[in-house]
Design brief:
single chain; binds phosphoenolpyruvate; binds manganese (II) ion; 3-deoxy-7-phosphoheptulonate synthase activity; transferase; 2-keto-3-deoxy-D-arabino-heptulosonate-7-phosphate synthase I beta; EC 2.5.1.54
């Protein structure tokens, strides 16, 4: 790519957290913010396992217009306050329009910056070039870019160049599975073999999203959650972060409940990923 050298950087710091091709973070949380009670349970569980990075969607791009679209700006004040209360330093949060960046900035300021936000570009906006330029032309927030589910890897890397070439090089590249026409027991074809590919083509930290790759809460024959297995594959491949969905009560989740892990599973997930990372 023309600007591939723009992606050369030695990592970045954000709100006391460091991200590069050796670092490791687990962004665990709800697909979509629903109630303060559920968000608080999630943050409390994260604090108990010593995790300060989370995921929470306020602006949800949905395939069906009648599905829950996210609480949007109005949940940000209490979301940020709860994050601060439980020591969450960074929330990965999708933005689908330029105005959302401003809303997040304003609400963080108003709340006294109790936490930080990483702007997520969802797979459906992987080539929304105006949105990419918008997150690229601000340096307040780092960006979690999710690869396009139906475009080439090269095209997704070029999309990151859009962000970097506008000035913001604080980017994490996230693999989240791709669509195929072959049929698949999973929601998407797991693409974690691309972790070392992306790490060698760029200097970006690479994240994996086992939740949207697998797409279901389901026990493998050995009695282990399939999502644990697939996440471990990402860690073995060298992932620098995991984006993963949990919910205190998946049955009442307003988005992606069937693929959410439970809070009882959280300590096991964290411990397993740490053990796998140590072993490789
Ligand atoms: C998500 O992380 O909740 C999400 C919508 O992911 P993706 O854009 O990868 O589908
Ligand atoms: Mn989701």
């Amino acid at each position: 790519g023309r600007h591939r050298e723009d992606l050369e950087s030695l990592g970045f710091e954000y709100n006391g957290l460091y991200f590069d091709q050796d670092s490791f973070h687990i962004f665990a949380g709800l697909c979509a913010v629903d109630t303060p009670q559920n968000v608080e349970k999630m943050f409390k569980a994260l604090r108990e396992v010593g995790i300060t990075t989370s995921r929470m969607g306020a602006y949800k791009p949905r395939t069906n217009p009648y599905s829950f679209q996210g609480h949007g700006r109005k949940c940000l004040p209490w979301l940020f306050e709860l994050a601060g209360k439980y020591g969450v330093k960074c929330i990965a949060m999708e933005v689908t329009k330029e105005i959302h960046i401003e809303e997040i900035y304003e609400e963080l300021e108003r709340a006294g910056r109790p936490t930080g936000v990483m702007l997520q570009i969802g797979t459906r906006n992987a080539q929304n070039f105006e949105l990419l330029k918008a997150v690229g032309s601000q340096k307040e927030f780092p960006v979690l870019y999710k690869r396009g589910m139906g475009i080439t890897l090269e095209e997704s890397l070029n999309a990151c160049e859009y962000i970097a070439s506008e000035g913001n090089r604080n980017i994490i590249f996230c693999l989240r599975g791709v669509k195929t026409n072959l049929g698949d027991p999973h929601r998407n074809l797991v693409d974690f073999a691309h972790v070392p590919v992306v790490k060698s083509l760029t200097r970006l930290p690479v994240c994996v999203d086992p939740t949207h790759s697998v797409g279901r809460r389901h026990f493998a024959p050995d009695g282990i959650q399939e999502i644990f297995h697939i996440a471990a594959q990402g860690v073995i491949a060298g992932a620098n972060a995991i984006l993963v969905e949990f919910h205190p009560n998946p049955e009442e989740a307003l988005c992606d409940g069937p693929q959410a892990l439970t809070l009882e599973e959280l300590p096991h997930f964290v411990e397993d990923m740490r053990l796998v990372r140590e072993a490789y």
